[in-house]
Design a protein that fits this description.
The protein has 185 residues and is of the alpha+beta class. It has two domains: 132 residues, CBS-domain, CATH 3.10.580; 40 residues. It is 37% helix and 21% strand. It is built from eight helices and eight strands; from the N terminus they run αβαββαααββααβββα. It starts with 8 loop residues before the first helix and ends with a helix. About 4% of the residues have low confidence.
Length: 185
């Protein structure tokens, strides 16, 4: 009889996840993030996550555009179509998923219910050897994008969609579709 020694997402995840309703203002979300000293909130109105909002979202989509944080909801700026994992998934697979998609946070869902969040910090704390995966991916990303002058992965500043290639147009990082719309105006 062989003992199961694999490390799972459940072993590393944070179970107490701070969440917010999509109708929460960005200002209130920032207060929550500051109070709990966290870099993101899971956005949900039921049991399953609908989106995620990060400090970067607030800076890039609100502050940099001089939008009043008390007048916009997190539902308007959150990242949608979340990549998620399950508590029983192997930790190394979750690390690869995060590296491949260039994300630092994974909501953990069990049967449609949010049960935790896995961050790159959680992975490093539980399994430092998996850091190699994240570091190697960062090196590959630098090489891959250093040849492409302005194309970078991220969230389109117009439609909010995550894409592998954003182009800078008039000081905004936009997806190919929005780029065409801007040029058509």
């Amino acid at each position: 009889m062989e003992m199961d020694t694999k490390v799972t997402v459940h072993d590393a995840m944070t179970s107490s996840v701070i969440t917010a309703d999509p109708n929460t203002t960005v200002a209130d979300a920032a207060i929550l993030m500051t109070r709990f000293k966290i870099g993101c909130l899971i956005v949900k109105s039921n049991s399953e996550p609908e989106g995620l909002i990060t400090e970067s979202d607030i800076i890039g989509k609100v502050v940099s555009k001089d939008i009043k944080a008390s007048e916009i909801t997190i539902g308007n700026i959150m990242t949608k179509n979340l990549i998620m994992t399950t508590p029983g998934s192997e930790l190394n697979e979750a690390a690869r998923l995060m590296a491949k998609n260039q994300i630092r946070r994974l909501p953990v869902v069990n049967k449609g219910v949010l049960v935790g969040i896995l961050t790159s910090t959680d992975i490093v704390m539980v399994s430092p050897e998996l850091t190699d995966i994240l570091v190697e991916n960062a090196k590959m990303q630098n090489v891959e994008y250093s040849d492409v002058e302005q194309s970078v992965p991220g969230i389109c500043e117009i439609c909010g969609t995550y894409v592998e290639y954003l182009d800078e147009v008039d000081g905004k990082f936009v997806c190919e579709s929005c780029k065409e719309d801007l040029k058509g105006e």
